C-alpha cells in the first residue's frame, strides 16, 4: 500500500535470517551502520556515501523483531536519521513502524544480568513514548487454519 502511494519503504530486522524474509530487507546493523562491537552505541555512517543518500530518501522504515533491539541501537538509529538531514525531529522525521512480540527474546547483553536485559530494552528508551502502540488481539494463523 505504501509503495502505491509512492512512498520509499525500507524493511529491516535485527537478525539476518529475519531480514531475508522481508521484501528488500536488510539487517539493522547494515542499514544504520551500527558498530556491534560496542553494543550499537555508535555508527559508521558517513554523510557522503551512496548508502547514506539512499537512506536519506526513505520515507518509512519497517523494523521487525523490535523486542530484540537494544535501546542503544534504537537511539543510535535515531541519531543517524537525525544527522542525515540535520533534522531536529525524531528519526529525521521519517515514519518508523516497529513490529515484534515482547513475549519473545529481549536484547542480548554479554554477561548481562536480568536487570541489564530489562534496562536495555527499547521500552526503557527515551524514544519509546513517541511511538503509538497497537496490540494484535486475534491469532491470524489459528483463524486462517480454521478457515482452510
From TrEMBL:
Cofactor(s) in the UniProt record: Mg(2+)
Q: What class of enzyme is it?
A: isomerase
Which SUPFAM superfamilies is this protein grouped with? P-loop containing nucleoside triphosphate hydrolases
EC code: 5.6.2.3
What keywords tag this UniProt record? Answer: ATP-binding, DNA damage, DNA recombination, DNA repair, Helicase, Hydrolase, Nucleotide-binding
Q: Which Pfam families match?
A: PIF1 (PF05970)
Q: Which GO terms describe its molecular function?
A: 5'-3' DNA helicase activity; ATP binding; hydrolase activity
Query: Catalytic activity annotated for this protein?
Result: ATP + H2O = ADP + phosphate + H(+)
Note the InterPro entries from the entry: DNA_helicase_pif1-like_DEAD, P-loop_NTPase
Q: Which PANTHER family match?
A: ATP-DEPENDENT DNA HELICASE, PTHR10492
Q: What is this protein called?
A: ATP-dependent DNA helicase
**To which species is this protein native?**
Caenorhabditis japonica
Its taxonomic path starts at: Eukaryota, Metazoa, Ecdysozoa, Nematoda, Chromadorea
